[in-house]
Amino acid sequence: MSARAHPDFLWRNPDPRPSYDVVIVGGGGHGLATAYYLAENHGITDVAVLEKGWLAGGNMARNTTVIRSNYLWDESAAIYEHSLKLWEGLSAELDYDLMFSQRGVLNLAHSLHDVREGRRRVNANVLNGVDAEWLDADEARAFCPILEVGGHTRHPVLGATLQRRGGIAKHDHVAWGYARGADALGVDLIQGCEVTGFEITGGRVRAVLTSLGRIAAGTVALAAAGHTSVLAARAGLRLPLQSHPLQALVSELLEPVLNCVVMSNAVHVYVSQAHKGELVMGAGIDPYTSYGQRGSFHVIEEQMSAALELFPIFKRVRVVRTWAGIVDVSPDASPIIGTTPVDGLLVNAGWGTGGFKATPGSGWVYADTIASGRPHPLAEPFGLERFTTGALIDEHGAAAVAH
Amino acid sequence: MTPDYDLAVIGGGPAGVAGALTAALAGLGVVLIDAAPRLGGQYFRRPAPGFRAGRPGALHHGLDRFTRQCEDLAGRADVLTGHRVWTVERDGGAVTVRCLAGDREERPRTVTARRLLIAAGAHDRPLPFPGWDLPGVLTPGAAQALLKGDLVVAGRRVVVAGTGPFLLPVAAGLAAAGAHVLGVHEAGGRTGLARHPFLAAGKLAEAFGYGARLARHRVPYRGRQAVVEAHGDGALTHVTIADLDRDWNPVATRTVACDTLACGYGFVAQLDLPVQLGCALRADPYGDLAVTVDAGMRTSVPGVYAAGETTGVGGAVLAEAEGRLAGRAVAADLGRRVPPDPVLSRRRDRLAAFARALGEAYPVRPGWRGWLRDDTPVCRCEEVPLAAVREALELGATDARSVKLLSRAGMGWCQGRMCGYAVSCLAGGSPAGDARAGAGGQGGGEARPGAGPAAFHRPIAQPVRLGDLAGTAAEPPRPGPPGTPAEVSHPPTEG
Fold first, then answer.
1. Residues 6+ apart with CB under 8 A from A2
2. By 3-state DSSP, what share of chain B in percent is helix, strand and coil, each rounded to 5?
3. pLDDT-derived band of residue B434, with 50, 70 and 90 as boundaries?
4. Mean pLDDT of chain B
5. pLDDT confidence band for B430 (50 / 70 / 90)
6. Which residue of chain A is at minimal alpha-carbon distance from B483?
7. Which stretches does DSSP call E strand in B201-301?
8. Which residues does the UniProt record annotate as the domain Rhodanese (chain A) (predicted)?
9. Which of B382, B465, B478 sits opposite A317 (nearest CB)?
10. Best mutation site among A298, A314, A328, A394 for testing chain B: the one with the most B CBs within 10 Å?
11. Within 10 Å of residue A237's Cβ, how many Cβ atoms?
């Protein structure tokens, strides 16, 4: 990597103070973005981000960096599109090159049902002001020449949706950008600090108990992705979340060969070529629940066998590394943002498979929710209460979650 | 599903062959898997039969004994040579070993067994220095492998350098094969073992043997010297040899013309598979990692055993003893009657103590960092120079993991197997220290006691082609863990 663009410094490594206005639990992308926007948008800087490992070492380091906003329903389209708009200005905002590349995201259709769903999604996206196009098979191949669209494969490509503004970014840079920004505004980023419990009296959270001692907090905001349900349980809350391993792999370096992001629901795979040249391929989530950052090989194997029918050119590409993140999936495949039955304890979780792309938008609305004490308008439909009212936002299709 | 075998042994060197043979003699169904075309590992690496080598024993100590073991084994167990293991999975009471067979057209092959013995050996530990990526610079292990396995003498004018007793047989072998060995330069001082005279006694005869052979070929053996720079335009033409102080800082230098340099600083156990499985590791006093085993060579993971360099670098004789102990333990654990063999256990303990003493006698001293210049590549795969590592440290990186994030050191083809030690040291720690860091905090994950360094957390042991990954899917599907709703369809999810 010749043209590195690191910050002049990263961030301080402070010891925790005895109390903060806001304690954010989880130093991944969402936690860091939340801290940054709390300070930048709302002037709240008496904030600590507690991370049990190291900053951005969880899902932030274990995703495939796809960014898009072509979700089906109004509520999701609104929050993901808000996020995408933030992405478009984020390198300038954080004064740090995030290597955000809007190279276009193809979602392939392999059956008449996929075609109908894809066209419907394009129409819904356009109505919501989200850029979307429908490509037939020839147009899809023209857009991505190495894609095998022939009718003789197990999964013939009948068409694809295209969001040209979608793309990828460099995940580490995103985390470092937010971390540096938050640190510069006075937020304490505390690594190696695990939250082991909560002090709750009179129905209100007073403090978090950590491996580094008790830290009092006016507001405690959970942002721990796959481990949020574990944390919430320590506060006596049972969240409707299931955590699954989600695997991905990276290949040896290649010359530029893939010019866009290609996703396929039916085949359960998505692939892009990172800036350095390696292919980044993601698989579907492992069906069993687990907090282990490692998945089963047969999941990868079955999905690669299908993926290679779409990209026979990749057959001899060597995989050098695989890994897994832990995704927390809610019953309607949409996030949970907002207050909880415990006063002062807020939750932002359930992003499942959409976490990375949502990072700026999620941080933005969560910070606003923390600062104002009421849900940000974009977050309002995603409250925990929807699982009792039944006002679900079913994104199993557009979240690329099979029906 | 009934496993194919009682025991799968990974590695066909002295430890693996002894382990497999011992278990097979006890009546177990055994499969032995090795990557090379012929059994032997590094120590007994032999030319393929097609070479018709006239005197194969000329290059080896104890080859006859090993050959007999291999012949014995062939009739009692399945031996899969040319099979590279890329992952191992453990599922309840069985292990699944996934291999790739063949050279150009690789075929996936899967083996299941009730028990697993890992005897995967070790590889050279290189240290970076200016010019270490020049053609003509190789490790002593590579020079030895070329000689033993391909009957190729690495060069005409050869300099051997580094640290550890392994330099002696390499130099002696090259000299005997006709190379002009200009010198053996031992950075640690030539009297390393003198501090442990009683322990050394067991090996003195061997050392004298090499010494005599080196003397016969007029090869000088120098202590407190190292090659601190390799020169050449496209290929090695000469090296700078430095006299070192106690901490390996150069005090005087001279250049020597040569076309080949064999340079290495001891060995690193190959721990990918034990780390995959979650075996507990321990750090040697001198900072290297090895798998923790009990007296029966059992690792912390039930059903998984380790022998040979996997449990700490100690040489072929110790490896064979450990292999035999492991084979006996596996047989006993599977219900065979195996009387204890205290003599073998004591022998193993004695040899292991000697190995520890050797490790302590040839430590890597910190002065090597001063041999590097800003543009010296530290990670060759990703072409990361020292300056980039230093920049990462200035930005606040405190361990190999954060250096990797900032500089990409260790993210290439070899996944840090070559540069990992150097990067850990440059980051101010040790591989063992990074192991503790890796175990302590997997952001968002469970801290697993004994988990390896973050750099080792890679579920595949070597690069595997997508086509081969896909090919294994054609095998019958295996059931998921209990309680898995098998019919549930699941999403691709791009995170």
1. none
2. 35, 25, 40
3. low
4. 84
5. low
6. A288
7. 221-223, 225-231, 238-244, 250-257, 260-265, 267-269, 281-283, 289-291
8. 22-66
9. B465
10. A298
11. 18
**ipTM over cut 0.85:** no
Residue B395: both structure tokens together? 């930005």
* pLDDT value of position B478: 44
Mean pLDDT (chain A, rounded): 91
* Nearest C-alpha in B relative to A356: B495
> Which pLDDT score, from 0 to 100, does residue B102 have?
78
Burial of B343 (0-12, 13-18, 19+ CB in 10 A): exposed
pLDDT at B171 over 60: yes
| Rounded Cα distance, B159 and B138, in Å | 10
Of A54, A302, A316, nearest to B473 by CB-CB distance is: A302
Nearest to B478 among A57, A293, A298 (CB): A298
Q: For chain A, count helices (H), then strands (E).
A: 9, 18
Query: Cα separation of A199 and A205, whole Å?
Result: 6
Inter-residue contact A57 to A80 (CB < 8 Å): no
**Token pair recorded at residue B367:** 């002065």
Which residues pair with residue A358 across a beta bridge?
A: none
B284 pLDDT above the threshold of 90: no
Confidence of residue A273 (pLDDT cuts 50, 70, 90): very high
Tens digits of residue pLDDT in A93-104? 999 999 999 999
- Please report the sign of the dihedral spanned by the C-alpha atoms of residue B344, residue B195, residue B60, residue B8: positive
Query: Mapping DSSP to helix (H, G, I), strand (E, B) and coil, where does residue A70 land?
Result: coil
With an 8 Å Cβ cutoff, are A226 and B486 in contact?
no
CB contact under 8 A, A298 and B473: yes
The whole-number average pLDDT for the span B152-181 is 92
Domains and CATH numbers, chain A: 14-64+171-241+331-399 (3.50.50.60), 103-166+242-329 (3.30.9.10)
Contact B140, B263 (CB under 8 A): yes
For the entire predicted model, the pTM comes to 0.83
Residue B486 in contact with residue B480, Cβ under 8 Å? yes
pLDDT digits (tens, 9 = 90+) for B60-96: 667 889 999 999 999 999 999 999 999 898 887 899 9
Domains of chain B and CATH, by start:
5-123+268-359 (3.50.50.60), 126-265 (3.50.50.60), 373-445 (1.10.10.1100)
Give B282's contacts (C-beta < 8 A, 6+ positions apart). Answer: B289, B290, B291, B292
Q: Which helix (H) or strand (E) holds A243?
A: strand A242-253
As a residue count, chain A comes to 403
Length of chain B in terms of residues written: 495
Spatial contact of B81 and B39, defined as CB atoms under 8 Å apart: yes
Q: Tokens at residue B462, please?
A: 């070597």
Q: Please tell me the distance in Å from A306's CA to the nearest CA on chain B.
A: 8
